[in-house]
Amino acid sequence: MKNELLQKLKYILWDAFAAGAGYTALFVFRKLYIESNRFGETSLIFSSQYYLGLVLIIIFWVTIYIATGFYRGIYRRSRLKELIYTFNSSLLGSVFILFVLILDDFVSDYTDYYSAYFVYFSTHFLLTATFRILLSTRTSIRIRRGKIRFNTIIIGSNAKAAALIAEMEKLNYYNGNFLVGFVSVNNNVQFLLEKNLDHLGTYHELPQIINKYEIEEVIVAVESSEHEKLEEIVNILEDFKVTVRMIPDTYDIISGKVKLESLGAPLVEIRHELMPLWQMAVKRIFDIAISLFLLILFSPLFVFSMIMVKLSSPGPVFFKQKRLGLHGKSFNMIKFRSMVHDAEKDGPQLSSEHDDRITNWGRIMRKYRLDELPQFINVILGQMSIVGPRPERMYYAEKIRAKAPHYKYVHKVKPGITSWGMVKFGYAENIEEMIDRLKYDIIYIENMNLFNDIKILIYTILIVLQGRGK
Fold first, then answer.
1. Number of structural domains, the chain?
2. Which of 8, 54, 204, 343 gives 339 a disulfide partner, CB atoms 3.0 to 4.6 angstroms apart?
């Protein structure tokens, strides 16, 4: 939406004001009540310390909201969910502020702590929630009046799509979806939607259609006979920042994927976010901190490995190779050279356990994963993560994709130094093994969270200490 940035700015400015007002209320309460009870009459002076605290509090709250993804999907949100989120964040954030600002106060009675907390929490919550409810209510009214709308296409053209259109027409309110047209899956059938919508093309033309019509939402309503095309359709849509919804089957309904908010025209949303935004931020901070720590801690081993690589065979110490990273963009992955120089002079070749091209020191490095140490530099540069699917070369990526089109899914995340695939399977020696390992990487992506990252790291450390790498 063109006005989405302005809408976000409104939220941010008011959230900053509410955060500042809550802090000011706490400051005044402490001066006029807590300090006056202990020290006698005190004057209310807004010192430089107050203004420094004011700035830090505002930065703290806005950062929390950004990190938790509150400002995303600003036009598509439930007012009740927004109110619950505001209450929970205010409650927990105020506890943090209590420990940072209030617990070191000299108080005449411990009930002063509770009073101070109540003053801060109530001021912050009421101001924040009031404006947010007003703004989201105004947004809801504008959507229902058609002043805010989301360009939408339907993929599918027959019975399911026609039933969905009929269901949407039964709704007694406008939900913001402006149907631009439909996209067909097959061209050799009669289209039931032609009497309702324009035919924009086939699903193969989705990239051009999405860009041309500035599509923001896609509804997938394919027939059972067209389900073999579903994976290809979803793979195409992965490259675009569009909301993707599908008509649910019976399993989706009984498994709880269809929520009450979908009442009327029930649809299942295919979410692009694999981890909450705050977890992604923590993961990135964790990656940088651990990488710097390990590079410093193992610097003697790093230098020793450089010397051993140089002595093991002629050639450079480091081996750089183009690999595919996030969104399929290439980068230079760095490793200690474990093979003879020009090992691939005859073209790309996968290594095996008894590969003659591997040097004696290279075998030791691979056994204990020492050849991967330089990749912590890639992590610091933001090209890789510590945990994530192993990156492949374009040559092998294309071969894998030819047999397993869902391989494209791994490019939704940054590649990693270690992965669930590496823990459970290890290095792959051919395309078939790469595809076998792929299922573990997909499982990881579908279940991405900080706990699983820590779990994979623990397993990796055990593998390294036991020398079970290959």
1. 3
2. 343
